[in-house]
Design goal:
Elements: H1 2-30, H2 37-81, H3 85-95, H4 102-113, H5 118-134, H6 141-165, H7 170-189, H8 199-222, H9 232-250, H10 261-281, H11 291-319, H12 322-355, H13 368-397
Helix pairs in contact: 1-2, 2-11, 2-13, 3-4, 3-5, 6-7, 7-9, 8-9, 8-10, 8-12, 9-12, 10-11, 10-12, 11-12, 11-13, 12-13
Length: about 400
């Protein structure tokens, strides 16, 4: 059955590739305006490559899922199989405690191990969880209340100021400030030693987020009518994604690990992806010499796959753990999203000023359509594509090390 399925996929792929070449040749023959050689090569190569990639990613994703489950079971399967639901509940609550309270949580787990009877264990576990929720924050409730009050006041002030200057960004400003404020309040409630082990990648992502906000303001200032393409749900999504990028880099969660290699690989990959974007969409004028057309077209077609796959694979192989690869994948996606969004809007504005078309040059539409396209591609399609390839790369990179992975 597996051999039949593989043969069917191969035959289908060949049929799709031949059909696309014929269709593209007919389209070029009847086109009013012929594209440049690089554009023609990219348009000819990318669609069949995407088809092949989808087939390969589906099988590789299945492999990655198996490796992730294998990794999880090797770390925690045998340990959790011997723990009942009350023990799991209390263990999860203890893991969420700040470091200074961690010993207390371990003591509660040790005490639970001595309790017999299902109902008695549930009563003890629930009472311990209630106790963890009632523990005062490190700085005390007054400090936490003050931080929350500052966040609420900031949300109101920023929302009012942005609403007066750029009305179309009011929802985004309020939501983004609220998300960042929540990160600050969480940091006050559960303080950790402030450190910046990877300053360059952190500055890169933070700068990308700031640039994304700046280009959005400029875009809506130049074309206020484009605000209709940023409805409240889209504005909330934009704010959540940009705040999430900051959270991954500035207040990186413990489960991502503290390896320095992953963030640097992710930041470097994001810069390469930004360069790929500019070469693909931001170049105007003369085409390169014809002998370089085919090579450049193939590079532009294959680059996105390598940009998301290689950092996760390299980090997983170097760190000999799945976590290291996933850390690189998370940093790559967190850096790619704001950088490409910050480039998309100005490049799209320049393109629209030339001929009134969208960034891909296929549709004559209002300039605000480019804002919606940036949300869909930069904050939707690219991260899904990148996370999929990153997980596959991390799983394959750590494949030999998974059974003995101590992380």
């Amino acid at each position: 059955m597996r051999w039949t399925r593989r043969r069917l996929a191969t035959v289908t792929t060949l049929v799709v590739m031949v059909a696309w070449v014929v269709f593209y040749a007919v389209a070029l023959a009847n086109a009013d305006q012929q594209p440049g050689p690089v554009t023609a090569v990219v348009q000819l190569v990318v669609p069949p490559l995407l088809w092949v990639a989808l087939l390969r990613i589906s099988s590789a994703a299945e492999l990655a899922a198996r490796l992730v489950l294998r990794h999880w079971r090797s770390r925690a399967g045998s340990r959790w199989s011997a723990v009942d639901p009350p023990g799991r509940l209390l263990a999860a609550a203890a893991a969420a405690l700040p470091e200074r309270r961690r010993e207390w949580g371990m003591a509660m787990l040790a005490e639970l191990a001595e309790i017999q009877g299902r109902s008695a264990r549930w009563r003890f576990a629930l009472s311990s969880v209630r106790a963890t929720l009632s523990l005062p924050p490190a700085g005390g409730w007054p400090v936490l209340a003050l931080a929350a009050g500052v966040v609420v006041a900031s949300v109101a002030a920023i929302g009012s100021a942005v609403g007066a200057a750029v009305p179309g960004l009011t929802v985004f400003a309020v939501t983004f400030t609220g998300f960042v404020g929540a990160i600050v309040v969480a940091a006050v409630a559960r303080p950790r030693r402030l450190r910046l082990p990877v300053p360059a990648p952190t500055v890169l992502v933070a700068g990308g987020v700031a640039a994304s906000i700046a280009v959005t303001v400029i875009f809506l200032r130049r074309d206020p009518a484009a605000a209709e393409f940023l409805p409240p749900p889209a504005a909330v999504y934009l704010a959540a994604v940009l705040a999430g990028c900051l959270w991954v880099t500035v207040a990186s969660p413990r489960w991502l690990g503290a390896n320095r290699l992953g963030p640097h690989l992710g930041a470097a990959a994001a810069v390469v992806f930004a360069a790929w974007f500019l070469l693909t969409f931001g170049t105007d004028g003369a085409e390169p010499p014809y002998p370089l057309v085919l090579l450049l077209g193939l590079v532009l077609a294959f680059a996105p796959f390598a940009i998301f796959f290689v950092p996760a694979f390299a980090a997983g192989r170097a760190g000999r753990s799945l976590r290291s690869g996933l850390q690189a994948a998370a940093w790559t996606v967190a850096a790619v999203m704001p950088l490409t969004y910050a480039l998309w809007l100005p490049v799209a504005l320049r393109r629209h000023a030339i001929d009134g078309k969208t960034l891909d040059g296929e549709l004559v539409a209002p300039a605000g359509v480019n804002l919606a396209d940036a949300l869909v591609f930069c904050l939707g399609i690219f991260p899904v594509f990148g996370i999929t390839l990153g997980v596959v790369g991390a799983a394959l990179g750590a494949r030999r090390a998974v059974p003995n992975d101590p992380s």
